[in-house]
């Protein structure tokens, strides 16, 4: 992580929330929390990093004032062969949010409660092993490294794009 990014984020007073979610007792499902912990270790001001087991409605309060939110999750889909970064918007259906949720419905709840929601992205990381255990597959380990590069790039591009 470049220290210029930290200074720029502080100067612009922009807040980003990184939310990595998944079960760290289900092998590759721990990808999201692992990424969130690694981002937290960067120590970048104005970047709040959360490692969670699942998304809950209470997170809307954390998102209301954020400029950007990056959600990180393991993907068991065979179509996901490499890390994917997708811009996401609130879900527009009449679905209600239950105890667990997906990022789009969490954004919808944030919009409904606070009248706004942050720019948001979903980082999908390839995963192959969801058995009970705490070790990551080689695919997941590579995916974590790639996801961290993508998040670093995303933070830089969003920061400098709005700075110009």
From TrEMBL:
Coiled coil: none
SUPFAM superfamilies: HybD-like (SSF53163)
Sorted UniProt keywords: Hydrolase, Protease
GO biological process: protein processing
GO molecular function, one term: enzyme activator activity
Signal peptide: none
Protein name: Hydrogenase maturation protease
Gene source species: Aerosakkonema funiforme FACHB-1375
